[in-house]
Amino acid sequence: MEIYLSGFLALALAHFVALLSPGVDFFLILSNASKYGRSSGVVTSAGIATGNLVYILLALFGITLIKENELVFASLKILGSLYLLYIGYMLLRVKKRELFSNQTEEKKRKKETIKYFSMGFLSAILNPKNSIFYLTMFTISIQNDTPFYVQSFYAAWMFLAVLFWDIFVVYLVTNSKSRIWVERYSNHIEKVSGAILLFLGSSILVDSVLY
């Protein structure tokens, strides 16, 4: 049991440090939550966590199959980079709007819920770094004799960590004390987020094509 505890601590620490580092998903949550309100941020977080769960399960059941297939993995990287470029471009084009508006029809809300969940899910599932990251997480924490139920616990922990951390970020962004600041600078946040996503997408695309 002690060896499992050390493996879990290594995984939990590495995973949490990675969550602290702003990435593609962070800026998408920041943009949606600050621009369209808390509920959209939470739904985006759920989509991101679900996308991460796919890679977590793939790592658990054998993500090496994807890595060993160079064509599939290279295609995934290119698709991911193009999606990042698209999201970044759309964020740069967004004009300043009223924030935290609740005057929305229920039917439209359902459509928006699907939209924000899909944005979060695609952001996570089309980010090729997630596949490598979760494979690494399991590599540093699992031994040959680690029981499957322990591995499953690791997987559940990472999924819940992503979900609750992202929701925590949403609540920070939409807290009433910081709402005035968010109202004033939300459009700037989107522009900066868009520029960062364009940079990340371009970097991944260049790396995929050249290497």
Walk me through the structure:
- The protein is mainly α and 211 residues long.
- It has one domain (1-95, 110-210).
- The protein is 84% helix and 0% strand.
- The longest helix is centred in the C-terminal third of the chain and has 32 residues, at 179-210.
- The chain is globular.
- 32% of the residues are buried.
- Mean pLDDT is 76; it is low at 102-108.
Distance between the termini: 42 Å
User: Unreliable runs, pLDDT <50, ≥5 residues?
Assistant: 102-108
The class by helix and strand makeup works out as mainly alpha
Give the helix proportion (percent range).
over 70%
* Percentage of β-strand residues: under 5%
**Count of helix runs:** 9
Query: Which overall shape is indicated by the principal axes computed on the Cα atoms?
Result: globular
Computed over alpha carbons, the radius of gyration is: 18 Å
Would you count the extended β strands for me?
0
Average pLDDT: 76
Count of structural domains: 1
Helix and strand succession? Answer: HHHHHHHHH
Largest sheet properties: none
In short:
Keywords: Cell membrane, Membrane, Transmembrane, Transmembrane helix. The chain is mostly helical.
List keywords for this structure.
single chain; 211 residues; mainly alpha; 84% helix; 0% strand; globular; cell membrane
Topology (SSEs and partners):
Elements: H1 2-20, H2 24-36, H3 38-61, H4 64-68, H5 70-93, H6 106-125, H7 128-141, H8 148-173, H9 179-210
Helix pairs in contact: 1-7, 1-8, 2-3, 2-6, 2-8, 2-9, 3-6, 3-7, 3-8, 5-9
Subcellular location: Cell membrane
Main location: membrane
Membrane topology: Multi-pass membrane protein
